[in-house]
């Protein structure tokens, strides 16, 4: 019987799967995002809004139906249900997110969280507004503290991946290239085409997590996970400056070979 040229019928002719670590290194060096991912603005009502109950933070001004955070622009707009209550409902819009347009397998490299690498050793003072601060990712590497500042709108996708602390499909790990750390997302389970790429932002009490989940699921884990998190940006902290006073380290990335 003719095999029709199908790789499915002849496994030896299938393209070998790239080692995920090498795949990550290749994309870091080429400074490109992987094919098979796309940016989507999450704007429909179908599960894209979360409803949070939260005490009224100091940065909120206004009364009753027009409460609005003076510093935040990430969808932090809410309506007071009761003047006497310390609680208010907020409707959070996720904004942009990253979706897989092809399937990914458990273990695959998915994306790099690109940005400026800042170190506590560097002395320049950076200040961020509340929106920019949501793109700062703190992590430890070789016993030192670093931060990836992804606040610049650079068209990269890693900075647009949203938080999911119960059933994330990716986990952040550090990958060293040319002696410098890079933050990369790897799939911790199979990801279907059409699924949103997510990871756990860390242990902060993020306001959008206040929604009720009826079916908690245990999160699978990988070794060598990075001990890291986005900087906490609770409404009451939204004008706090970044603790990082670092110079930009921008010359570590290799040119595409
Ligand atoms: C690093 S940015 C992610 C990209 C962002 N969605 C955007 O459009 O720029 C982090 C911000 O996304 C939003 N976000 C992330 N995960 C979310 C979630 N699960 N629910 C609601 N908003 C989320 C919050 O506004 C958060 O401050």
Explain this structure to me?
The chain has 257 residues and is mostly beta strands. The chain has 2 helices and 16 strands. It is globular and about 60 Å long. Mean pLDDT is 70; it is low at 1-5, 44-91, 213-223 and 232-257.
Q: How would you briefly describe this protein structure?
A:
It comes from Takifugu rubripes (Japanese pufferfish). The protein is mainly beta and 257 residues long.
What is the strand arrangement across the widest sheet? 2-6-5-4-3
Number of strands: 16
Taking all Cα atoms into account, the compactness measure Rg is 20 Å
Main sheet specs: 5 strands, antiparallel
Strand content: 25-35%
Helix fraction bin: under 10%
Overall mean pLDDT stands at 70
> What small molecules are bound in this structure?
S-adenosylmethionine
Please tally the helical runs, counting DSSP H or I stretches of 4 or more residues: 2
Element string (H = helix, E = strand): HEEEEEEEEEHEEEEEEE
Q: Low-confidence spans: pLDDT under 50, at least 5 residues?
A: 1-5, 44-91, 213-223, 232-257
Secondary-structure-based class equals: mainly beta
Distance between the termini: 43 Å
Described by the principal axes of the CA atoms, the overall outline is globular
Pfam family, one: SET
Protein name: SET domain-containing protein
Region (Disordered): 1-26
InterPro entries: KMT5A, SET_dom, SET_dom_sf
